[in-house]
């Protein structure tokens, strides 16, 4: 007796997005295998590509589970999910609870066989709570108090993620919050003033990082400051006096710019057709460090081995997902569905733009993963849940 209902539901699934997601998962496994080939000393179930397949399976199951629950029911629990992720963001800052994994920033909670990165889940809970909060009558959105509360919902996870420190993930929350506010109908006067204030703060930060003397500088982690110096081409040795200091500074500059330079070489050396799968010289010769090739710089591995055509294929798959998300937002029958879809599309676009941008030196290195392609359990899980939320809005669009 359930067959007609199931057939109707099946016909309403957005297959182009599902196929694009499956395509990216296949590419992800293939090139993680290429960037991190199996080691004879590591058990098969601990190989990177096998672990990625496991996370794909868990994420796909979570996405299917999300699709079984109307997004209105999910939104009713948005505040609970939001505060759970805030508590996790607080917990990760506690010594012996949060761990750095040797990267200098305390971003993970070690749970034995795997590590949890709360900032990834905070992005999804933020979208859910912001969409739910702003899906109110248009008259209420004109009240300054409502806008200030929306800013507060953005600022709280932003500050905790910034404290880890994870500047990239913190900054991703800003365009998501602004776009959701704009689409919701928040007065543009409020948004212009906010953008003006943020723009002034960013300009002051850049002036401080690039030109301020040490005693006047805003407190930033040394590696964050050096990443910005590399991006803007600042000479590390410019303010050094002795030859020994200048030599040390230039060595530091070479080390800090190495990953970006090698990624750019990888992208450029792939040519039109690429060198072939597992034939990339940057990986084989160790110029592109193995510790970053399978996550932050996976795009450069694809570009070297599959060339311009492979890069275009990856961008085409992301384009399908993003434009499908925009179409789902346009077809949503209520404000909540529209805002959810818009928030997820903005989040995915921000990740893709920043990650590929840092691979070709259009953006500074921030550690933002490439959705579904970069290695990482939390990132993969959240990307697939985000895709499941888009499908959810599409599935239940006829119910309202």
Short descriptors:
single chain; about 400 residues; mainly alpha; three-stranded antiparallel β-sheet; 17 helices; 3 strands; globular; disordered N terminus
Gist of the model:
The chain has one domain (24-186, 221-399). 69% of the residues lie in helices and 2% in strands. The protein has helices at 3-11, 15-35, 48-67, 71-76, 78-91, 118-134, 138-141, 144-163, 167-184, 188-211, 222-232, 243-269, 281-284, 290-293, 298-331, 335-359, 377-395, and strands at 98-99, 108-110, 115-116.
Query: Which assembly state applies to the chains in this document?
Result: single chain
What count of structural domains?
Answer: 1
Find the structural class using helix and strand composition.
mainly alpha
Main β-sheet description: 3 strands, antiparallel
Q: N- to C-terminal separation?
A: 24 Å
What's the arrangement of strands in the largest beta sheet? 1-2-3
- Helix segment tally: 17
Average of pLDDT: 88
Shape: globular
Helix-strand pattern: HHHHHEEEHHHHHHHHHHHH
Counting DSSP E segments of at least 2 residues, the number of strands comes to 3
Rounded Rg:
22 Å
Percent helix, as a range, is 55-70%
Q: Low-confidence spans: pLDDT under 50, at least 5 residues?
A: 1-11
In percent, how much strand structure appears in the residues? under 5%
């Amino acid at each position: 007796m359930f067959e007609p209902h199931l057939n109707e539901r099946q016909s309403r699934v957005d297959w182009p997005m599902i196929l694009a997601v499956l395509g990216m998962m296949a590419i992800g496994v293939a090139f993680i295998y290429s960037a991190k080939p199996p080691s004879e000393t590591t058990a098969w179930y601990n190989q990177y590509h096998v672990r990625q397949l496991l996370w794909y399976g868990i994420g796909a199951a979570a996405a299917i589970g999300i699709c079984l629950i109307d997004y209105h029911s999910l939104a009713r629990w948005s505040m609970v999910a939001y505060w759970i992720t805030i508590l996790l963001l607080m917990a990760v800052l506690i010594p012996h609870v949060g761990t750095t994994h040797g990267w200098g920033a305390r971003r993970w909670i070690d749970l034995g066989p795997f590590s949890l990165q709360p900032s990834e889940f905070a992005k999804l809970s933020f979208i859910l709570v912001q969409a739910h909060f702003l899906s109110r009558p248009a008259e209420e959105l004109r009240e300054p108090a409502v806008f200030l509360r929306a800013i507060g919902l953005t600022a709280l996870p932003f500050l905790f993620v910034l404290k880890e420190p994870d500047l990239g993930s913190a900054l991703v929350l800003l365009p998501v919050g602004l776009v959701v506010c704009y689409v919701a109908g928040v007065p543009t006067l409020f948004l212009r003033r906010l953008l003006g204030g943020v723009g002034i703060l960013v300009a002051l930060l850049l002036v401080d990082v690039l030109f301020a003397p040490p005693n006047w500088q805003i407190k930033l982690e040394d590696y964050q400051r050096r990443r910005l110096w590399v991006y803007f081409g600042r000479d590390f040795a410019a303010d050094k006096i002795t030859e020994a200091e200048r030599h040390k500074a230039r060595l530091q500059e070479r080390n800090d710019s190495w990953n970006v330079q090698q990624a750019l070489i990888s992208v450029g050396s792939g040519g039109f057709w690429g060198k072939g799968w597992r034939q990339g010289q940057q990986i084989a010769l160790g110029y592109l460090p193995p510790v970053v090739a399978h996550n932050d710089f996976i795009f450069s591995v694809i570009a070297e081995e599959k060339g311009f055509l492979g890069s275009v294929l990856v961008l085409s798959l992301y384009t399908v997902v993003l434009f499908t998300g925009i179409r789902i937002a346009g077809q949503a029958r209520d404000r909540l569905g529209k805002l959810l879809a818009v928030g997820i599309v903005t989040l995915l676009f921000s990740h893709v733009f920043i990650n590929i941008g840092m691979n070709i030196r259009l953006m500074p290195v921030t550690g933002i993963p490439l959705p579904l392609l970069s290695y990482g359990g939390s990132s993969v899980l959240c990307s697939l849940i985000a895709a499941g939320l888009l499908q959810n809005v599409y599935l239940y669009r006829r119910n309202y």
